[in-house]
Amino acid sequence: MSTSVPQTGTSGPPGPAGTTPVLELRDVAVHFGGVKAVDGISLQLESGLIYGIIGPNGSGKSTLIAAVTRLTPLTRGELLLDGRPVHDVAASRLAGLGVARTFQTVRLLPDLTVRANVQIGADARSGDEAQQRRGPAGWLRPRAASPAVAEAVARTRLEGFEDHYPSELSYGTQRRVEIARAIAMGPRLLLLDEPTAGMNQTERAEISALMRSMRTDGLCQLLVEHDVQMMIDTCDYVFAMNSGRLIAQGAPADVVQDPAVQEAYLGRKWRDHARSE
Ligand SMILES: Nc1ncnc2c1ncn2[C@@H]1O[C@H](COP(=O)(O)OP(=O)(O)OP(=O)(O)O)[C@@H](O)[C@H]1O
């Protein structure tokens, strides 16, 4: 069963007694002038689970991810990573603290091979040391391939593509390289913002299977995705947002059936119109 969500207090599936959540949000808000993009969200994410955020366009999903990754300042609230406050930590330090992400659009370096692109993720693990090896454009200059790269390449089934350049790869494969780069960081928390956008069904199923396989490592994953079936197939627990707030949460198949969620997607006008017919 999904549950409607109180707007104060903390929500999320209960973790094993006594464990500290990987990520906790306490009353997080991000306002842009009068626009309350995120407006008082409290939740907890536990290790080894895949969480999803659904919601109609403009409901605040991307802003929430930007807040967690410190790319957008909080208007109010607290972020805790493994129980440690991070709402004042610079975005550039989050990788060193175990947070990795992929973006809505592919962001690979075109002049680097797959291996070198993934190595950038492995290098970001070492934090300050890596800062000293920044290239002229601000990107890290990759060093010799590390075991983390081979592991990430194997995990994402990219063997054979290591010496290819991004332009030689299909879109779906490029997205797998992005995920490989993120997991080469050895994160505790992986945020995936629409990782299957533009993919066909087979490629989507591959990403879903890849995410499921990474649960066994204790990795906590947070997925933003428009494809509802992908959410049902992939996530352990889903949060539904509308107008910057949580409106439901629970098992994915239940949340997508929740009347508040259906109304948020379809709109009251549409429902009223349907009733009058
Ligand atoms: N930098 C900004 N300045 C002003 N308003 C913004 C900014 N970023 C987002 N918004 C507004 O905040 C609200 C939430 O936007 P957001 O992109 O987080 O929603 P979303 O759920 O990710 O949407 P989509 O599914 O279309 O990506 C929208 O009304 C949007 O116009």
TrEMBL record:
Cross-referenced SMART domains: AAA (SM00382)
Classification via Gene3D superfamilies: P-loop containing nucleotide triphosphate hydrolases
Database matches in CDD domains: ABC_Mj1267_LivG_branched
Superkingdom per UniProt: Bacteria
GO cellular component labels: plasma membrane
Ranges for domain ABC transporter: 23-268
InterPro entries the UniProt entry points to: AAA+_ATPase (IPR003593), ABC_AA/LPS_Transport (IPR051120), ABC_transporter-like_ATP-bd (IPR003439), BCA_ABC_TP_C (IPR032823), P-loop_NTPase (IPR027417)
Keyword annotations: ATP-binding, Nucleotide-binding, Transport
Region of interest (Disordered), ranges: 1-20, 124-143
GO molecular function, one term: ATP hydrolysis activity
Keyword Nucleotide-binding: yes
Protein name: Branched-chain amino acid transport system ATP-binding protein
Native source species: Geodermatophilus amargosae
